[in-house]
Amino acid sequence: MISSRMAFSLTVMLVCLPVALLATPIAAASPEKTLKLERSHTSYPIRNVQVIIDPSKSLSIEDIRKLEDKKVAEWHWTQRLNFGYSPARYWLKVSVSNLSSNDADWLLEFGYPLIQVLHVHQFIGSRQVARWQTGRLSAFSSRPIGYRNFLFNFAAPKGTHTDLYVMLESVGTVLAPMAVYTQNEFLSQSAKKTTAIGMYCGIILAMVLYNFFLFITIRDRNYLFYVAYALTFCLLMTSLNGMTYQYLWPNWQQWNKISVPVLAGICYLFLALFTKSFLETKKLVPSLDWGLDTILAGAIFLIVGGLFHYGLFVNRFTSLFISAAPLIALPISLRCMQLGSRTATYYFIAFGCFFIGSGTHAARDLSWLPQNFATENGPYLGSAAEMILLSLGMAVRVKLLKEEKVKSEFQAMEAERQLSENKKSLESHLAVSTLASQVAHDIRSPLAALEIVSGDIAQLPEDKRILVRAAVGRIRDIANNLLDRQRAQAKGTGNSLSPSVVSETASPRLLSSLIDPVVSEKRLQFRSLSRIEIELRLDAPSYGIFAAVQPVEFKRLVSNLVNNAVEAFGDSAGAVSVSLSAHDGRALVIVQDNGKGIPPEVLAKLGQRSETHGKAGGSGLGLYHARSSAESWGGSLELASEVGKGTTATLSLPLAPAPTWFVPELSLAPGKAVVILDDDESIHQVWQGRLDALKAGAHGVQVVHVSTPAEMRGWVKNEAVAACDALYLFDYELLGQRETGLALTEELGLGERVVLVTSRYEEPEVLEACRRLKVRLIPKGLAGFVPIRIQAAQAPAAATPAEKDARLDAVLIDDDALARMNWKLAAKRAGKSFKAYEDAASFWAELDAGAISTDTPIYIDSNLPDGVKGEDVALEISRRGFAEIRLATGHDPSTFAPMSHIREVIGKEPPWGTT
Question: CA 878, 697, 850: angle at the middle one, nearest 5?
Answer without folding.
Answer: 30
